[in-house]
Amino acid sequence: MFANSLKEKIRKGQPAVGTWIYFTDLFAVETMAQTGFDWWLIDTEHAPIGPEGLLRILSVAKSSATPSIVRLRNNQPEYFKTALDLGAAGVMVPMINSAADARRAVDCCRYPPLGSRGFAPIRASNYFRNLAEYTQSANQEVMLIAQVESIQAVQELEAIMAVPGIDAIFIGPGDLSSSMNLVGQFKHPRVEEVIVQIMAKARAAGMPTGIMAFAPEDLFAYAEGGAILLIVGGDLVFMTRGATEALERTRALLGTLKESKGN
């Protein structure tokens, strides 16, 4: 039977700490896979990750038993088929702004009678060796996350969450702030107020909620508000911050050396 360890954690209400994946380089992917995250989110919406790169990441994820959620380019059936047939544990669908959007995602993600997902789970079924087991459990175990990232989605949130087949919602602070004419101001009080409202509504509806943050302290604050699908940083963030910090510290130390020699 195809089993999804991430979905099992969410069913139990346990926090799942993940990270963002932008790189397809084998060294980078293996390094992240061996870090020990509960899951990771592979971003095909904004990162230049095509089918070949996605296959590379999913192959490493399988060897490390890291559940992979693929953020799709958009809410179109061909992107669901590629990610799920290659063996992703689930998908995150951007810009779910209405119940109609949510129903379309469910239709693309689930096999009949729940939806109309195309049938060819090549790698997902271990190249058809475990076809019966996969098809019997896919509708239950594949995770479908609706991304809530606009004021329109906030206004339609109850209707979105009521659509059968949606397993969780994930708040997108970046696009949410843009929809509020506060581009890039993730920590603006008005944006944070709306995020609190989203989490409160989701908690009342019993809908698992996720969000990302760059700092563990911010993520902890969201967890206190009820978020359990948690993402901290990402491969690109870790590389950029690590390199910048190392360079700044080195230059600072070299500056003290120059001063001491000058004296």
Task: Give an overview of the whole structure.
It contains 12 helices and 8 strands. With 263 residues, the chain is α/β, with parallel strands linked by helices. It has a single domain (5-262), classed as Phosphoenolpyruvate-binding domains (TIM Barrel, Alpha-Beta Barrel). An 8-stranded parallel barrel has the order 1-2-3-4-5-6-7-8, surrounded by 7 helices. Strand 1, helix 2 and strand 2 form a beta-alpha-beta unit. Helix 2 (26-33) runs parallel beside helix 3 (51-64). It is globular and about 80 Å long. The mean pLDDT is 94.
Topology:
Blueprint: H1 5-11, E1 16-21, H2 26-33, E2 39-43, H3 51-64, E3 68-71, H4 77-85, E4 90-93, H5 99-109, H6 131-141, E5 143-148, H7 151-155, H8 157-161, E6 168-171, H9 173-179, H10 189-205, E7 209-213, H11 216-224, E8 229-234, H12 235-262
Parallel strand pairs: 1-2, 1-8, 2-3, 3-4, 4-5, 5-6, 6-7, 7-8
Helix pairs in contact: 2-3
Summarize, please:
The chain is an alpha/beta fold and 263 residues long. It contains twelve helices and eight strands.
Category from helices, strands and their pairing: alpha/beta
General form: globular
Count of the separate structural domains: 1
**Could you report the average pLDDT, rounded to the nearest whole number?**
94
Rg, alpha carbons: 20 Å
CATH hierarchy: architecture: Alpha-Beta Barrel
Instruction: Kindly identify the CATH topology.
Output: TIM Barrel
Unreliable residue stretches: none
Strand order, sheet with most strands: 1-2-3-4-5-6-7-8
Order of SSEs:
HEHEHEHEHHEHHEHHEHEH
Biggest sheet record:
8 strands, parallel, barrel
Number of helices: 12
- Portion in helices: 40-55%
